[in-house]
Protein backbone atom coordinates (compact mmCIF):
# COMPACT_ATOMS: atom_id res chain seq x y z
CA UNK A 1 0.00 0.00 0.00
CA UNK A 2 1.50 3.32 -1.09
CA UNK A 3 0.80 6.72 0.43
CA UNK A 4 0.54 9.49 -2.09
CA UNK A 5 2.11 12.75 -0.94
CA UNK A 6 0.27 15.78 -2.29
CA UNK A 7 2.31 17.86 -4.72
CA UNK A 8 1.57 21.04 -2.79
CA UNK A 9 3.02 19.54 0.39
CA UNK A 10 6.14 18.41 -1.44
CA UNK A 11 6.68 21.82 -2.96
CA UNK A 12 6.29 23.41 0.46
CA UNK A 13 8.89 21.10 1.95
CA UNK A 14 11.30 21.85 -0.89
CA UNK A 15 10.77 25.58 -0.37
CA UNK A 16 11.43 25.21 3.37
CA UNK A 17 14.65 23.32 2.69
CA UNK A 18 15.78 26.04 0.27
CA UNK A 19 14.97 28.75 2.80
CA UNK A 20 16.92 27.06 5.57
CA UNK A 21 19.82 26.23 3.28
CA UNK A 22 20.02 29.84 2.16
CA UNK A 23 19.97 31.05 5.77
CA UNK A 24 22.70 28.62 6.83
CA UNK A 25 24.98 29.38 3.88
CA UNK A 26 24.41 33.11 4.28
CA UNK A 27 25.19 32.97 8.00
CA UNK A 28 28.42 31.05 7.44
CA UNK A 29 29.47 33.44 4.67
CA UNK A 30 28.85 36.58 6.69
CA UNK A 31 30.56 35.09 9.74
CA UNK A 32 33.71 34.45 7.71
CA UNK A 33 33.45 37.90 6.14
CA UNK A 34 33.17 39.54 9.58
CA UNK A 35 36.32 37.77 10.80
CA UNK A 36 38.23 38.75 7.66
CA UNK A 37 36.99 42.33 7.97
CA UNK A 38 38.07 42.52 11.61
CA UNK A 39 41.59 41.28 10.91
CA UNK A 40 41.93 43.53 7.89
CA UNK A 41 40.87 46.49 10.02
CA UNK A 42 43.50 45.70 12.63
CA UNK A 43 46.14 45.47 9.90
CA UNK A 44 45.04 48.83 8.45
CA UNK A 45 45.33 50.54 11.84
CA UNK A 46 48.75 49.01 12.45
CA UNK A 47 49.98 50.28 9.09
CA UNK A 48 48.90 53.79 10.05
CA UNK A 49 50.68 53.56 13.39
CA UNK A 50 53.86 52.49 11.59
CA UNK A 51 53.51 55.50 9.30
CA UNK A 52 53.14 57.84 12.28
CA UNK A 53 56.18 56.27 13.94
CA UNK A 54 58.23 56.96 10.82
CA UNK A 55 56.85 60.44 10.18
CA UNK A 56 54.83 61.99 13.05
CA UNK A 57 53.49 64.80 10.86
CA UNK A 58 52.41 62.56 7.96
CA UNK A 59 48.73 62.53 9.10
CA UNK A 60 48.43 66.26 8.39
CA UNK A 61 49.05 65.46 4.71
CA UNK A 62 47.91 61.88 4.19
CA UNK A 63 44.70 61.95 6.26
CA UNK A 64 42.95 64.90 4.54
CA UNK A 65 44.04 63.70 1.07
CA UNK A 66 42.70 60.18 1.61
CA UNK A 67 39.53 61.51 3.26
CA UNK A 68 38.85 63.62 0.17
CA UNK A 69 39.73 60.78 -2.23
CA UNK A 70 37.52 58.23 -0.44
CA UNK A 71 34.61 60.67 -0.25
CA UNK A 72 34.96 61.44 -3.97
CA UNK A 73 35.16 57.78 -5.03
CA UNK A 74 32.26 56.86 -2.77
CA UNK A 75 30.02 59.59 -4.19
CA UNK A 76 30.88 58.70 -7.79
CA UNK A 77 31.06 54.89 -7.73
CA UNK A 78 29.50 53.66 -4.46
CA UNK A 79 26.86 56.18 -3.35
CA UNK A 80 25.05 53.59 -1.21
CA UNK A 81 28.25 52.78 0.70
CA UNK A 82 28.66 56.14 2.45
CA UNK A 83 28.29 56.40 6.19
CA UNK A 84 27.50 53.67 8.66
CA UNK A 85 25.61 51.03 6.70
CA UNK A 86 22.83 50.49 9.23
CA UNK A 87 20.53 53.15 7.68
CA UNK A 88 20.92 51.40 4.31
CA UNK A 89 19.78 48.10 5.79
CA UNK A 90 16.81 49.82 7.42
CA UNK A 91 15.84 51.45 4.12
CA UNK A 92 16.10 48.16 2.24
CA UNK A 93 14.08 46.34 4.89
CA UNK A 94 11.37 48.98 4.64
CA UNK A 95 10.79 48.10 0.98
CA UNK A 96 12.65 44.87 0.08
CA UNK A 97 10.87 44.39 -3.25
CA UNK A 98 12.21 47.72 -4.48
CA UNK A 99 15.71 47.79 -3.04
CA UNK A 100 17.09 44.23 -3.03
CA UNK A 101 17.71 44.41 -6.78
CA UNK A 102 19.30 47.85 -6.47
CA UNK A 103 22.48 49.23 -4.97
CA UNK A 104 21.78 49.38 -1.23
CA UNK A 105 22.56 45.71 -0.60
CA UNK A 106 24.51 44.74 -3.71
CA UNK A 107 27.84 42.93 -3.54
CA UNK A 108 29.37 45.85 -5.43
CA UNK A 109 28.35 48.22 -2.65
CA UNK A 110 29.59 45.72 -0.06
CA UNK A 111 33.04 45.77 -1.67
CA UNK A 112 32.95 49.57 -1.73
CA UNK A 113 32.03 49.63 1.95
CA UNK A 114 34.80 47.17 2.78
CA UNK A 115 37.51 49.04 0.87
CA UNK A 116 36.38 52.50 1.93
CA UNK A 117 36.29 51.62 5.63
CA UNK A 118 39.75 50.06 5.50
CA UNK A 119 41.09 53.12 3.68
CA UNK A 120 39.72 55.36 6.43
CA UNK A 121 41.29 53.20 9.14
CA UNK A 122 44.58 53.25 7.23
CA UNK A 123 44.82 57.03 7.69
CA UNK A 124 43.52 57.29 11.26
CA UNK A 125 39.81 57.81 10.61
CA UNK A 126 37.69 57.37 13.74
CA UNK A 127 35.44 54.71 12.22
CA UNK A 128 34.14 51.36 13.36
CA UNK A 129 33.61 48.23 11.31
CA UNK A 130 30.37 47.21 13.07
CA UNK A 131 27.98 49.36 11.01
CA UNK A 132 29.71 48.41 7.75
CA UNK A 133 29.60 44.76 8.82
CA UNK A 134 25.82 45.06 9.15
CA UNK A 135 25.46 46.27 5.56
CA UNK A 136 28.01 43.76 4.20
CA UNK A 137 26.30 40.92 6.07
CA UNK A 138 22.87 41.87 4.79
CA UNK A 139 24.28 42.10 1.24
CA UNK A 140 25.78 38.62 1.54
CA UNK A 141 22.53 37.19 2.90
CA UNK A 142 20.59 38.75 0.01
CA UNK A 143 23.14 37.49 -2.54
CA UNK A 144 22.91 33.91 -1.24
CA UNK A 145 19.12 33.97 -1.33
CA UNK A 146 19.10 35.33 -4.86
CA UNK A 147 21.70 32.73 -5.92
CA UNK A 148 19.50 29.93 -4.57
CA UNK A 149 16.41 31.65 -6.02
CA UNK A 150 14.82 32.06 -2.62
CA UNK A 151 12.54 35.10 -2.20
CA UNK A 152 14.17 37.98 -0.33
CA UNK A 153 11.89 39.36 2.37
CA UNK A 154 12.31 42.00 5.04
CA UNK A 155 13.00 39.16 7.48
CA UNK A 156 15.98 38.01 5.41
CA UNK A 157 17.45 41.53 5.40
CA UNK A 158 16.88 42.01 9.13
CA UNK A 159 18.40 38.61 9.90
CA UNK A 160 21.49 39.43 7.86
CA UNK A 161 21.93 42.80 9.55
CA UNK A 162 21.39 41.41 13.04
CA UNK A 163 23.86 38.61 12.38
CA UNK A 164 26.33 41.30 11.34
CA UNK A 165 26.03 42.98 14.75
CA UNK A 166 26.47 39.64 16.51
CA UNK A 167 29.49 38.70 14.39
CA UNK A 168 31.18 42.11 14.69
CA UNK A 169 30.93 42.31 18.50
CA UNK A 170 30.77 38.56 19.22
CA UNK A 171 27.52 39.33 21.04
CA UNK A 172 24.66 37.09 19.80
CA UNK A 173 22.05 38.41 22.23
CA UNK A 174 22.86 41.98 21.22
CA UNK A 175 22.26 41.02 17.59
CA UNK A 176 18.79 39.78 18.45
CA UNK A 177 18.06 42.88 20.54
CA UNK A 178 19.26 45.19 17.77
CA UNK A 179 17.03 43.44 15.25
CA UNK A 180 14.03 43.88 17.51
CA UNK A 181 14.78 47.40 18.66
CA UNK A 182 16.23 49.09 15.57
CA UNK A 183 16.08 47.09 12.34
CA UNK A 184 12.53 45.79 12.74
CA UNK A 185 9.36 47.73 13.42
CA UNK A 186 7.56 44.85 15.09
CA UNK A 187 8.61 45.80 18.60
CA UNK A 188 7.36 49.16 19.83
CA UNK A 189 10.07 51.29 21.43
CA UNK A 190 7.75 52.27 24.29
CA UNK A 191 7.26 48.61 25.16
CA UNK A 192 11.04 48.05 25.34
CA UNK A 193 11.42 51.02 27.68
CA UNK A 194 8.47 49.84 29.79
CA UNK A 195 9.95 46.36 30.15
CA UNK A 196 13.33 47.74 31.18
CA UNK A 197 11.73 50.13 33.65
CA UNK A 198 9.73 47.32 35.25
CA UNK A 199 12.80 45.10 35.52
CA UNK A 200 14.87 47.91 37.02
CA UNK A 201 12.27 48.84 39.65
CA UNK A 202 11.61 45.26 40.73
CA UNK A 203 15.35 44.60 40.91
CA UNK A 204 15.96 47.68 43.02
CA UNK A 205 13.20 46.68 45.45
CA UNK A 206 14.65 43.20 45.78
CA UNK A 207 18.19 44.53 46.16
CA UNK A 208 17.13 47.10 48.75
CA UNK A 209 15.10 44.67 50.88
CA UNK A 210 16.93 41.35 50.48
CA UNK A 211 20.46 42.57 49.81
CA UNK A 212 22.90 41.73 47.05
CA UNK A 213 22.38 38.04 46.29
CA UNK A 214 22.23 35.66 43.35
CA UNK A 215 19.41 33.15 43.00
CA UNK A 216 21.72 30.12 42.74
CA UNK A 217 24.97 31.36 44.28
CA UNK A 218 27.51 34.07 44.95
CA UNK A 219 28.40 36.91 42.59
CA UNK A 220 31.08 39.58 42.23
CA UNK A 221 30.73 43.10 43.54
CA UNK A 222 29.27 46.04 41.66
CA UNK A 223 28.16 49.52 42.59
CA UNK A 224 26.62 49.92 46.05
CA UNK A 225 22.93 50.77 46.05
CA UNK A 226 23.58 54.27 47.41
CA UNK A 227 26.07 55.11 44.66
CA UNK A 228 24.01 53.43 41.95
CA UNK A 229 21.29 56.10 41.90
CA UNK A 230 23.67 59.06 41.81
CA UNK A 231 26.17 57.68 39.30
CA UNK A 232 23.48 56.32 36.96
CA UNK A 233 21.65 59.64 37.05
CA UNK A 234 24.76 61.66 36.22
CA UNK A 235 26.01 59.22 33.58
CA UNK A 236 22.56 59.07 31.98
CA UNK A 237 22.16 62.85 31.83
CA UNK A 238 25.65 63.58 30.50
CA UNK A 239 25.55 60.63 28.10
CA UNK A 240 22.15 61.66 26.79
CA UNK A 241 23.25 65.28 26.33
CA UNK A 242 26.51 64.54 24.52
CA UNK A 243 25.16 61.59 22.54
CA UNK A 244 22.08 63.56 21.51
CA UNK A 245 24.30 66.44 20.41
CA UNK A 246 26.35 64.08 18.24
CA UNK A 247 23.21 62.66 16.62
CA UNK A 248 21.77 66.12 16.07
CA UNK A 249 24.91 67.27 14.26
CA UNK A 250 24.81 64.29 11.89
CA UNK A 251 21.12 64.69 11.16
CA UNK A 252 21.56 68.43 10.49
CA UNK A 253 23.88 67.63 7.58
CA UNK A 254 21.13 65.70 5.80
CA UNK A 255 18.44 68.39 5.95
CA UNK A 256 17.93 71.79 4.33
CA UNK A 257 19.22 74.37 6.71
CA UNK A 258 20.90 77.73 6.97
CA UNK A 259 22.79 79.19 3.99
CA UNK A 260 26.22 78.47 5.47
CA UNK A 261 25.27 74.82 6.03
CA UNK A 262 24.04 74.47 2.47
CA UNK A 263 27.26 76.05 1.22
CA UNK A 264 29.30 73.50 3.16
CA UNK A 265 27.28 70.60 1.77
CA UNK A 266 27.70 71.89 -1.78
CA UNK A 267 31.47 71.24 -1.55
CA UNK A 268 31.64 67.65 -0.25
CA UNK A 269 35.25 66.96 -1.28
CA UNK A 270 36.52 70.10 0.44
CA UNK A 271 34.42 69.20 3.48
CA UNK A 272 35.99 65.72 3.60
CA UNK A 273 39.49 67.22 3.39
CA UNK A 274 38.72 69.65 6.23
CA UNK A 275 37.35 66.76 8.30
CA UNK A 276 40.63 64.93 7.66
CA UNK A 277 42.58 67.90 8.99
CA UNK A 278 40.41 67.92 12.13
CA UNK A 279 40.98 64.19 12.64
CA UNK A 280 44.75 64.59 12.20
CA UNK A 281 44.82 67.51 14.65
CA UNK A 282 42.72 65.69 17.26
CA UNK A 283 45.00 62.68 17.03
CA UNK A 284 48.11 64.82 17.40
CA UNK A 285 46.61 66.62 20.42
CA UNK A 286 45.68 63.33 22.13
CA UNK A 287 49.01 61.65 21.38
CA UNK A 288 47.37 59.38 18.82
CA UNK A 289 44.61 58.04 21.08
CA UNK A 290 41.71 59.40 19.01
CA UNK A 291 42.80 57.69 15.78
CA UNK A 292 41.17 54.45 14.70
CA UNK A 293 38.40 52.56 16.46
CA UNK A 294 39.66 53.30 19.98
CA UNK A 295 39.24 49.66 21.01
CA UNK A 296 42.59 49.27 22.78
CA UNK A 297 42.25 52.50 24.76
CA UNK A 298 38.72 51.58 25.81
CA UNK A 299 39.90 48.19 27.02
CA UNK A 300 42.65 49.86 29.05
CA UNK A 301 40.12 52.13 30.73
CA UNK A 302 37.80 49.24 31.55
CA UNK A 303 40.64 47.32 33.20
CA UNK A 304 41.56 50.25 35.44
CA UNK A 305 44.49 51.70 33.51
CA UNK A 306 44.74 55.45 33.18
CA UNK A 307 44.99 57.37 29.89
CA UNK A 308 45.25 61.12 29.26
CA UNK A 309 42.06 62.96 30.16
CA UNK A 310 41.98 64.45 26.64
CA UNK A 311 41.00 61.08 25.16
CA UNK A 312 37.23 61.51 25.51
CA UNK A 313 36.89 65.03 24.03
CA UNK A 314 39.41 64.29 21.25
CA UNK A 315 37.60 61.06 20.34
CA UNK A 316 34.26 62.90 20.21
CA UNK A 317 35.64 65.53 17.83
CA UNK A 318 37.45 62.95 15.71
CA UNK A 319 34.40 60.69 15.41
CA UNK A 320 32.09 63.56 14.52
CA UNK A 321 34.50 64.87 11.88
CA UNK A 322 34.93 61.40 10.36
CA UNK A 323 31.17 60.83 10.24
CA UNK A 324 30.55 64.23 8.64
CA UNK A 325 33.09 63.49 5.89
CA UNK A 326 30.61 61.28 4.02
CA UNK A 327 33.08 58.40 3.70
CA UNK A 328 32.22 54.79 4.60
CA UNK A 329 32.61 53.85 8.25
CA UNK A 330 30.58 53.04 11.33
CA UNK A 331 30.11 54.84 14.63
CA UNK A 332 29.46 51.88 16.97
CA UNK A 333 32.99 51.26 18.26
CA UNK A 334 34.01 54.95 18.25
CA UNK A 335 30.87 55.82 20.23
CA UNK A 336 31.74 53.22 22.85
CA UNK A 337 35.21 54.75 23.04
CA UNK A 338 33.79 58.26 23.48
CA UNK A 339 31.57 56.84 26.22
CA UNK A 340 34.62 55.34 27.91
CA UNK A 341 36.25 58.77 27.81
CA UNK A 342 33.11 60.24 29.34
CA UNK A 343 33.26 57.59 32.07
CA UNK A 344 36.85 58.56 32.77
CA UNK A 345 35.73 62.15 33.34
CA UNK A 346 32.91 60.92 35.60
CA UNK A 347 35.33 58.88 37.67
CA UNK A 348 36.90 62.14 38.83
CA UNK A 349 33.54 62.97 40.45
CA UNK A 350 33.19 59.55 42.10
CA UNK A 351 36.74 58.47 43.03
CA UNK A 352 35.52 56.06 45.72
CA UNK A 353 33.54 53.96 43.21
CA UNK A 354 35.08 51.17 41.10
CA UNK A 355 36.69 52.76 38.04
CA UNK A 356 35.59 49.99 35.66
CA UNK A 357 31.96 50.37 36.72
CA UNK A 358 31.99 54.12 36.15
CA UNK A 359 33.61 53.66 32.71
CA UNK A 360 30.95 51.11 31.81
CA UNK A 361 28.12 53.47 32.76
CA UNK A 362 29.70 56.26 30.73
CA UNK A 363 29.82 53.93 27.72
CA UNK A 364 26.19 52.83 27.94
CA UNK A 365 25.03 56.39 28.63
CA UNK A 366 26.75 57.94 25.62
CA UNK A 367 26.05 55.03 23.28
CA UNK A 368 22.36 55.13 24.17
CA UNK A 369 22.35 58.88 23.68
CA UNK A 370 23.65 58.43 20.13
CA UNK A 371 21.64 55.47 18.83
CA UNK A 372 18.60 55.65 21.16
CA UNK A 373 18.48 51.86 21.54
CA UNK A 374 18.67 51.31 25.31
CA UNK A 375 18.02 47.58 25.33
CA UNK A 376 20.72 46.94 22.71
CA UNK A 377 23.15 49.18 24.60
CA UNK A 378 22.69 47.32 27.88
CA UNK A 379 22.95 43.86 26.31
CA UNK A 380 26.07 44.79 24.33
CA UNK A 381 27.77 46.04 27.50
CA UNK A 382 26.78 42.94 29.45
CA UNK A 383 27.95 40.52 26.75
CA UNK A 384 31.21 42.31 26.09
CA UNK A 385 32.18 42.50 29.75
CA UNK A 386 30.45 39.38 31.15
CA UNK A 387 29.50 41.35 34.26
CA UNK A 388 25.93 40.73 35.34
CA UNK A 389 26.42 42.67 38.59
CA UNK A 390 25.97 45.88 36.61
CA UNK A 391 22.56 45.05 35.14
CA UNK A 392 20.53 47.45 37.27
CA UNK A 393 22.76 50.54 36.98
CA UNK A 394 23.15 49.87 33.24
CA UNK A 395 19.38 49.76 32.82
CA UNK A 396 18.93 52.95 34.83
CA UNK A 397 21.65 54.82 32.92
CA UNK A 398 20.31 53.70 29.53
CA UNK A 399 16.75 54.75 30.34
CA UNK A 400 17.83 58.18 31.59
CA UNK A 401 20.15 58.71 28.61
CA UNK A 402 17.40 57.74 26.17
CA UNK A 403 14.98 60.22 27.74
CA UNK A 404 17.53 63.06 27.83
CA UNK A 405 18.74 62.41 24.28
CA UNK A 406 15.17 62.54 22.98
CA UNK A 407 14.96 66.12 24.26
CA UNK A 408 18.22 67.13 22.60
CA UNK A 409 17.53 65.33 19.32
CA UNK A 410 13.90 64.40 18.79
CA UNK A 411 14.51 62.07 15.83
CA UNK A 412 16.37 58.77 16.16
CA UNK A 413 19.66 58.83 14.27
CA UNK A 414 19.56 55.67 12.17
CA UNK A 415 15.88 55.95 11.35
CA UNK A 416 16.32 59.53 10.17
CA UNK A 417 19.42 58.76 8.09
CA UNK A 418 17.65 55.81 6.44
CA UNK A 419 15.14 58.14 4.77
CA UNK A 420 17.71 59.48 2.32
CA UNK A 421 18.43 55.93 1.17
CA UNK A 422 14.76 55.05 0.79
CA UNK A 423 14.58 57.68 -1.94
CA UNK A 424 17.42 56.11 -3.93
CA UNK A 425 16.14 54.71 -7.23
CA UNK A 426 17.37 51.17 -7.96
CA UNK A 427 16.95 51.84 -11.69
CA UNK A 428 19.59 54.59 -11.58
CA UNK A 429 22.10 52.76 -9.40
CA UNK A 430 25.52 51.77 -10.73
CA UNK A 431 24.57 48.13 -10.23
CA UNK A 432 21.51 48.45 -12.44
CA UNK A 433 23.46 50.34 -15.11
CA UNK A 434 26.08 47.61 -15.26
CA UNK A 435 23.40 44.94 -15.64
CA UNK A 436 21.80 46.90 -18.45
CA UNK A 437 24.96 47.09 -20.55
CATH T-level fold name of the largest domain: Clc chloride channel
Rg of Cα set? 22 Å
Q: Determine the structural class based on helices, strands and strand pairing.
A: mainly alpha
Report the end-to-end length measured between terminal Cα atoms: 57 Å
Q: Return the CATH architecture of the largest domain.
A: Orthogonal Bundle
Continuous helix count: 20
Structure description:
- This protein is mostly helical and 437 residues long.
- It has two domains: 10-184, Clc chloride channel, CATH 1.10.3080.10; 189-420, Orthogonal Bundle (Clc chloride channel), CATH 1.10.3080.
- It is 73% helix and 0% strand.
- The chain has helices spanning 7-54, 59-77, 86-94, 96-99, 107-121, 130-147, 154-169, 172-183, 189-210, 225-252, 259-265, 268-285, 295-302, 311-324, 332-347, 355-371, 374-385, 391-408, 413-422, 430-436.
- The longest helix has 48 residues, at 7-54.
- The protein is globular.
- It starts with 6 loop residues before the first helix and ends with a helix.
- 49% of the residues are buried.
- The model is unreliable at 213-221 and 430-437 (pLDDT under 50).
Write the layout of secondary structure elements.
Layout: H1 7-54, H2 59-77, H3 86-94, H4 96-99, H5 107-121, H6 130-147, H7 154-169, H8 172-183, H9 189-210, H10 225-252, H11 259-265, H12 268-285, H13 295-302, H14 311-324, H15 332-347, H16 355-371, H17 374-385, H18 391-408, H19 413-422, H20 430-436
Helix pairs in contact: 1-5, 1-6, 1-7, 2-5, 2-12, 3-7, 3-19, 5-6, 6-7, 7-8, 8-17, 9-18, 10-15, 10-16, 10-18, 12-14, 13-15, 14-15, 15-16, 16-17, 16-18, 17-18
